[in-house]
Amino acid sequence: MPKDEATNMFISSLGSENRWIGLSDADSEDNWVFEDGQTLTSTGYSNWLQVQHEPNGGEACRDALGMESGHILDDDITASSRRGDDYKAQYARLKGNKNWAAKYNWIGQWLQVDLTNVKRVTGTMIQGSANVEAWVKYFTLQYGVDENSLVTYRHNDGIDKFFKGNTNKNTQVTNLLDHPVDARYVRFYPQLWFFWISMRVEILGCDRENFTVCPEPPPVPNTDTSGPECICPYWPGKNCTYKCITGGDVIMTCGNDATTPQLSSASQLPTAGAPNDTSQAKVKKERKTVLKKIFEDPSAFKSKLATEDNATQEEWNGWKTGKNMPQGYDSNVSPQTEEKFDVTSAVKILHVGPLSEENANLSVTVEYSMGWVDARLRGLSTGWEPVPASFMWAPPLAFDAAVRRAADVSKKRKSGGRGGSDHDISMWLHPSGILFHRLTRTLYLSCVPSMARYPLDQQECSFKLHGYSGLYFPVHRPKNASSPGPVTTDMTAVVSQFELTGLNVYSSVQQTDNTEAACHLLTGKYAYSADHCTHMRGCSHGNECAVCKTYFGSCQYESNDCNRSGLTQVSTLEVRLQFSRRLQSHVLVTFLPTTSVVMTSWLGFWLHPQEINGRVSLGISTLLSLIIKSSYGENPQTNLVRAYDVWMSGCLAMVMLALLETVLANFILSGGQVIIF
């Protein structure tokens, strides 16, 4: 460490190559301290350049690589899309008076910089929009030597790294890489943003002198006998020899700035640039298997959760206090790293209220069971462990316009204990990083009934749950015909004036601009015949009670393969309830009384024609009874001609004909000449 002229002259005599002199501001920016703790001012010596060199990607390797200066040409800056000519990728330069903005405000948009040759990349700087209040809050990075084989920058455990971005449009936010990488192409993937995806960027790093990179990830390396086995430049170690695909050996030296742990044998080494690929594939397979088992029979799984929940109060408190949360976890940041993000789903109808014909209102309580993967949470539990939903990322969802209001029906716990003042436990975490969430809502639907066939009418009411930014709602078929499957109904809680005769469920995707018809991932049609279940309201045990509370009827499924990009699509999980009006009360209140009145009016046919007073009184009485019944009956009012109106009109016609017969018979008997053809 040169703290006097003699030491400085000695180091200078060693040659012109750059050397680190033990000075760093790693602990505090711009606060330069020697390795022995002395500062610049305390040594009393300052005969050196303002920026000194640390080895392999230290302070000296944080130069701006040309976005702001224009050294990187416009043609070397590309993007997935642009909002217009004023938001081209070439405008994504730090401190510029314009900026890049994506055309689509979805996850999956990217901005790419071609450095023209391989550089050591050590960090990035970003800003938001130059003109409007818009910026990127979080982003991920991809990098590589070949544009067609970029890899995502990850933590040492293989989890994708999420970089913090801006909180306003102008502040320059610097992110230094935990371990520098060597790349020609650097691609930014916005993950969370304010108002619109808008960026101005700079890339930090330096030239890689005398450093050769194979055009493709190297095969199994031949390790130099003078040092331990390693993968350069991803693992620390000594010189390693690689057989480049283009021929010839390349000697690479791994620097101490690489922080990924060294492996012990060449046979265990993963492909360079993609650590833990094999284990990642196993994890993905495990997650797929777990999700399939859950949603083939979600009712059985929820029962299993209720009986096998062995989590302790201490474990719950660990989640509540953040002790069990991974470092840097942000519930506002999506774990989505691809264009399509699956949220496997199932639906249970918990309650159906009466349909108001006057106000077109219907209340339905629905429980959505959802499962998705958040890789950041992998390995944080030993089994299915309850976690506080308010601390976890959950997919952004929205109901359609038919839902006037959605109320959260989760009850707050009044006592202490697990759950505290939060809502009842509704989310569980699997060791593989799968989150299982129960979302329960009472939906107040706008459902305009068709009254043309009243009271013989059938109605259909629907509600839709929408997902955006590449969200998909895969729905699994039941594992066998006797399993409940993805949609069930508590038939004991149907308190409507209608009988629930069935429902249809649709999981679909459609372009946001509606240029193409919706593609149905799965269509399920359920036919119900369980009106007897309404008499079991409040039951708690017995096989018949269990069947009615998890009723699924007879089912038919149809699935399609919708191979489309998820960026510009809206995914929809739709449920259509099918009703048929219960006729028992109408038979007793309407059909039997009016039929009796009509038949009573026919009794006049058995009276002697000369009993004119009795026959007229009988006819007028029955006529008035029908008029009163049709005028003051408690029936839904509408401007349409209903089946009820046709029935009442027919009854009035029959009584009028009976009364007309009395008049004609009296006219004939009184001496009038009437010829009846």
Automatic annotation (TrEMBL):
One GO CC annotation: chloride channel complex
Keyword Glycoprotein assigned: no
Record-level Gene Ontology MF annotations: chloride channel activity; extracellular ligand-gated monoatomic ion channel activity; transmembrane signaling receptor activity
Bilayer topology: Multi-pass membrane protein
Source organism superkingdom: Eukaryota
Domain C-type lectin, residue spans: 1-61
> Pfam families this protein is in?
F5_F8_type_C (PF00754), Lectin_C (PF00059), Neur_chan_LBD (PF02931), Neur_chan_memb (PF02932)
Identify the keywords attached in UniProt to this record, alphabetized.
Answer: Cell membrane, Chloride, Chloride channel, Ion channel, Ion transport, Membrane, Transmembrane, Transmembrane helix, Transport
Check the record and name the SUPFAM superfamilies matching this protein. C-type lectin-like, Galactose-binding domain-like, Neurotransmitter-gated ion-channel transmembrane pore, Nicotinic receptor ligand binding domain-like
Note down the stretches annotated as region Disordered: 262-283, 306-325
Domain F5/8 type C: start-end pairs: 61-206
Membrane-spanning ranges: 586-607, 646-669
Similarity-based family: Belongs to the neurexin family.
Q: What is this protein called?
A: Uncharacterized protein LOC109483039
Q: Which organism is it from?
A: Branchiostoma belcheri
Corresponding gene?
LOC109483039
